[in-house]
Design goal:
This protein is mainly α. Helix 1 packs antiparallel against helix 4 and helix 2 runs antiparallel to helix 3. The chain is built from four helices and no strands. The longest helix has 27 residues.
Length: 111
Amino acid sequence: MDELVAKFLPRFAVLARDRIEGALRAAEGRRHDRAEAVAHDMHSLAGEAGLLGLEGVIVVARAAEDAARRFGGSGGDADAAAFVDCLRSLERAVAAATNGVTDGTNGVVDA
């Protein structure tokens, strides 16, 4: 299992960050029309984290999925702000889980 994690964790780190950035653009831009697609991305992120045993990421990604759906349903500022907060927590969870991971080409994945 360690070989699997070593192989896929760098890919996960990059993909997770890309998904979170896209979700933040949708939430901060009040794009509730993108909420269902973002919720799907958060669901996928949680599943991928599960395959890698990243329990802390799973919990926060599922919360982000729920927050995306609430925001999509209401389109309200309060739900958008809560969604952004959740995404910031997810950023921190991914950073903690992938701290020091290299992408195999140009150095450390996390900033």
